[in-house]
UniProtKB/TrEMBL annotation:
CDD domains: AdoMet_MTases (cd02440). Residues 45-135 form the Methyltransferase type domain. This is SAM-dependent methyltransferase. GO terms for molecular function: S-adenosylmethionine-dependent methyltransferase activity. InterPro entries: Methyltransf_11, SAM-dependent_MTases_sf. It comes from the Bacteria. GO terms for biological process: methylation. The keyword Transmembrane does not apply. Keywords: Methyltransferase, Transferase.
Amino acid sequence: MTSTEQGRRKYDALADRYEEIYFYVADMGQELVSAAGPPPGARLLDVGAGRGAVARAALARGCAVTAVDASAGMVARLADDHPEMVARQQDAGALDFPDGSFDVVTAGFLVQVLTEPAAALAEFHRVLAPGGMVALSLERQTVGRLGWLHDLNREFFGGESGGDPLSPDGLDELLVGSGFAAPERALVKVPKDMDDPAALWDWLALQGVPEALDSLPGGEAVTFRERFFRGAEEMHRNGGITLEFAATLHTAVRS
């Protein structure tokens, strides 16, 4: 399996508010489909479809869309919201489609969370027709002026363990190693301005911060909140509060 049970549970829980938290996915979905450039009628498979940001953009171009996700909750919402597409629960590394079934395979912000991205890319290659296009988006980790918030989170909740994140160069190497040719990529930025510190807190609340604070001992939750608002108010006074997000869009051809 290329996705983990923990990851599937996480996205099941986020199904109803996914695009509120990850505000950039709708814009990036449109950007990714534009990068792939499928003609009307193209058979497009969207892997790790989530709430359908990429799939919706493909439908708008007249593609015949099949969307798959490892999360049962995401697939149920997709099927309800978009009966005009085929929605299936499948793992990215074990796609249940015949060889050469699609003209385009897309995957928005998927490969970076997989335990075995190379296995997924091999499946994308297999289900694409010769000359077909793969289009992937990869999140670029940026801290920018929110460094104070990252430091605060690390102090109270600790850092995440794990290896180095997948880099744009690393993804291009994986694409070539999986049999794709002529990889290209472009950097896209999607900033989001927050009205005030309370708006930033509300955005964090969507991600479960209040529940995480409940797990802190003693008065640490109160201390966290106080320090958060001091940092956010300082940021607001000195240039405003902006969530900085960037991604690379990768395309390649099935050789």
